[in-house]
Design a protein that fits this description.
It is a single chain. The protein is about 25% helix and about 20% strand. With about 230 residues, it is of the alpha/beta class. The protein has a single domain, classed as TIM Barrel. It has an eight-stranded mixed barrel. The two termini are about 30 Å apart.
């Protein structure tokens, strides 16, 4: 299900744009409430892109990098195929809590060229498969801020924060309300953060099935109603 960009669409992450400069807000990619998307990495294996044309999805987020030096070996191929076939595409970075933010931003920027019309860059912040922070919470968050600021400056778009309710509660409850929120909440009930915030993107299953991909996939949707 391919979005038609000539149709008047709603600005993606309206809530996040409230405190963003007009130049940044004007460059945001466009998504409509109700759109469905996948996030993919090398773990999903090879994609039969001809068969994937029939997948009932509107946008893709592709894993590009992790930490300071790891690059997803399938990212460039995934990006090239997806863009050539007209998908709305964005890239994400898995953030390692024990690594410096500046170096992680450099790894992502080296892998993801600045491209007009792409979805905002995203950062994956979660406990699973992560490492223990080397410093205090304030020191670790200061490194995260360096990453976020460097990426925003590079791409002219405020990064999307992907996380879980637990990680958000422990690390992000203060100071990150202006960032678009992509929240995992598996099941039929849309999750909210402890302070009641609804996500801009909701990851509702990690076991979806789509044509062209043999493995199970993470599926996401943009809520039908703007977050309150």
């Amino acid at each position: 299900m391919r979005p038609f960009l000539t149709v008047v669409t709603l600005l993606f992450f309206v809530a996040a744009c409230r405190d963003v400069s007009p130049s940044v807000a004007g460059n945001r990619a466009m998504l409509q409430p109700g759109f469905t998307g996948l996030d993919l990495s090398h773990h999903n294996g090879r994609i039969d892109w001809e068969a994937f044309e029939a997948a009932p999805v509107d946008f893709l987020y592709l894993k590009a990098t992790e930490g300071t030096d790891w690059k997803d070996p399938r990212f460039q191929d995934h990006w090239r195929e997806a863009k050539a076939r007209g998908w709305l595409v964005g890239a994400y970075h898995f953030y390692r809590l024990c690594r410096a933010g500046e170096a992680q931003a450099g790894n992502f920027i080296q892998s993801v060229e600045v491209r007009a019309g792409g979805l905002p860059p995203a950062v994956d912040l979660e406990y699973a498969h992560n490492c223990e922070p080397r410093g205090s919470m304030s020191e670790t968050l200061a490194e995260l801020d360096v990453f976020l600021e460097r990426v925003e400056a590079e791409y002219g778009q405020r990064p999307v924060i992907y996380t879980t309710p637990e990680f958000h509660r422990d690390w992000l409850s203060d100071g990150y309300a202006d960032y678009p929120l992509w929240l995992r909440g598996l099941g039929e009930v849309m999750p909210r953060t402890r302070d009641g915030r609804a996500p801009d993107i909701w990851q509702y299953t990690m076991s979806g099935r789509v044509p062209g991909i043999e493995s199970r996939v993470d599926m996401n949707r943009v809520p039908d109603r703007p977050p309150e």
